[in-house]
Write a structure and sequence with these properties.
alpha+beta; Phosphorylase Kinase, domain 1; Aminoglycoside 3'-phosphotransferase, Chain: A, domain 2; 2 domains; 5-stranded antiparallel sheet; 3-stranded antiparallel sheet; 15 helices; 12 strands; about 50% helix
Length: about 425
C-alpha cells in the first residue's frame, strides 16, 4: 500500500521517503525504515527531477516529470503524461533488448513517478568521452540494441494489430514530438527566440541560414520524421542517454519515444559521436582517442547491419516481406534486405546532420563543446561539426559507406571548409 495524493506534487529530498516509504517494491530494495534512506537530487537534464535513493540495503533511481521544461522554466509547460510514455517505452525495450535498460520497480501515473534500477558504478557516456576513456564492447552493445529495438518494434516483426495499437498509444505524445520537430528541424535555420550559439560562429551561422538547399533538405527530413512511423524509437538517443563502465553499456531516458523512421535513432547517436570527435581538441586532443571515436562509429553501424540482417533472416514474422511471397526465389528477400538497409543508411546520415546542426545552434547543446573554456577553440570545434552536419544533410544520397564519413570527418578536422 502506498500513500497517494490526487493532486500532483513535485518530490523533494525531504518529502520523498515519506511519500514513497510504503511502496512494497521499495521496501524490498531499501528497507522499511525510511530513516535510513538517503536522498540525493542528481537531475542534470532538461526536463525532469531525478533522485538517487540509497540505504544500507540498496539503491534505486526515482524520476519524476515536471509540468514544464526544466531547462527553460514554467514559461514552457509540458504535460505530465510523458512519464507514462517513458514507462511504456522501457517495458517494450526490456522485451526487445533484454538487459539493456533499467528494470522498473514502481510507476505512479498520477504523480508522474518512475522508480527504477540504479546502474552503478556506471557514468554518463559523455563524461567518458570528455575524459578520453574507452569502453570495451561499446559499439557492439549500441549497434545490437539499435537493431533489436528497431526491428522488433516494426511491421517486420510485430503482430499487425498489436503494432497499430502501439502507434495509437504513442501518437498522443504530441507535445514531446513537437519539441523535436521544432528544436531539431526548424529553429536552427532561422533566428528563433530559444536559439543560442558561440559568438565566434556568427559568420558561419549566417551562411547556414542563407543556405536554401540546406533548409529545404532539413524539412524533407522533418516530413519523414513526422509522417513515417516505421518503428518505435527511443527518440532522444545520444551519448547522454547511455550509461557505461569500462566494460558495460546501458540505455536510459526514452521519454521522447515515438513511432518514426528507422534511421532516426542511429543518426542521432552517430551525430553525437561525430561532434565528440571534433570536440576532442578541447579535451586533450589525443590522436589515438580521436581515432577510437571514429572506429566506434564505424563499428556501431557495422554491428547494427549485422544484427538487423540476422533478425531479418530469423525473426521476420510481421506483415512485411512475407516468406510466402518469395517461394522459389531465395535471393529475393536478400535483395529486399539490401534495399531496406540502403534506405535506413541514407535517412541515418540526414538525421545525423540535422542533429549536429541543432546541438550547436538550437536550445540544447552538448557538454563536450560547452565545457571548452577557450571560446575561439570552441567555435572552431563547433564549426567543424556544422560543416560535417551540412554535408551529411545535403549529400546523404551520394555517400556510399561509413568509411567515407570517417574520411570526410578527418578531412574537415584539418580545417573547416565552411
Amino acid at each position: 500500500m502506498v500513500a497517494k495524493t490526487s493532486i500532483y506534487e513535485p518530490l523533494t529530498v525531504k518529502t520523498l521517503p515519506e511519500r514513497l516509504g510504503r511502496v512494497s517494491s521499495l521496501e524490498k530494495r531499501l528497507g522499511a525504515d525510511t530513516g535510513q534512506w538517503q536522498c540525493k537530487e542528481v537531475g542534470d537534464g532538461n526536463l525532469n527531477l531525478v533522485f538517487i535513493v540509497s540505504s544500507p540495503q540498496g539503491e534505486v533511481i526515482v524520476k519524476q516529470a515536471l509540468p514544464y521544461v526544466r531547462l527553460v522554466g514554467d514559461s514552457w509547460p509540458l504535460p505530465l503524461k510523458r512519464a507514462f510514455f517513458e514507462y511504456q517505452a522501457l517495458v517494450r525495450q526490456a522485451e526487445r533488448a533484454p538487459g539493456m535498460v533499467p528494470q522498473i520497480y514502481h510507476f505512479d501515473e498520477d504523480q508522474a513517478i518512475i522508480v527504477m534500477e540504479f546502474f552503478s558504478p556506471h557514468i554518463i557516456l559523455r563524461q567518458k568521452l570528455m575524459a578520453c576513456e574507452r569502453v570495451e564492447g561499446l559499439a557492439e552493445a549500441l549497434g545490437t540494441f539499435l537493431a533489436r529495438t528497431i526491428f522488433r518494434g516494426s511491421d517486420l516483426s510485430m503482430e499487425t494489430a498489436k503494432r497499430k495499437r502501439d502507434v495509437a498509444l504513442f501518437v498522443d505524445s504530441v507535445e514531446i514530438n513537437d519539441i523535436t520537430e521544432t528544436l531539431v528541424f526548424s529553429d536552427p535555420y532561422f533566428n528563433a527566440e530559444r536559439n543560442h550559439h558561440t559568438p565566434g560562429l556568427d559568420s558561419v551561422v549566417a551562411q547556414l541560414r542563407a543556405d536554401i538547399d540546406l533548409k529545404v533538405e532539413a524539412h524533407h527530413l522533418k516530413a519523414k520524421f513526422a509522417n513515417n512511423g516505421e518503428t518505435m524509437l527511443h527518440g532522444d538517443f545520444h551519448t547522454g542517454s547511455i550509461m557505461v563502465t569500462e566494460t558495460d553499456t546501458k540505455i536510459i531516458d526514452p521519454e521522447f519515444v515515438l513511432y518514426g523512421p528507422m534511421g532516426f535513432d542511429i543518426g542521432m547517436l552517430l551525430g553525437n559521436f561525430w561532434m565528440a570527435y571534433f570536440a576532442q581538441a578541447g579535451h586533450g586532443n589525443d590522436a589515438s582517442y580521436r581515432a577510437w571515436i571514429l572506429e566506434v562509429t564505424e563499428e556501431i553501424w557495422d554491428n547494427f547491419v549485422s544484427e538487423f540482417s540476422h533478425l531479418w533472416r530469423t525473426e521476420r514474422t510481421g506483415m512485411l516481406y512475407e516468406d510466402i511471397l518469395f517461394e522459389g526465389q531465395p535471393h529475393a528477400t536478400e535483395r529486399a534486405l539490401k534495399q531496406r538497409l540502403a534506405d535506413i543508411w541514407e535517412d541515418m546520415l540526414g538525421f545525423a546532420g540535422v542533429e549536429m546542426i541543432r546541438r550547436t545552434l538550437s536550445l540544447a547543446h552538448i557538454a563536450e563543446n560547452d565545457t571548452i573554456k577557450d571560446e575561439a577553440l570552441r567555435a572552431q570545434c563547433e564549426a567543424r561539426g556544422l560543416d560535417l552536419g551540412r554535408q551529411l544533410v545535403l549529400n546523404r544520397a551520394c555517400i556510399g559507406d561509413i568509411s567515407q564519413v570517417t574520411d570526410l570527418a578527418k578531412q574537415i578536422n584539418k580545417g573547416s571548409s565552411l
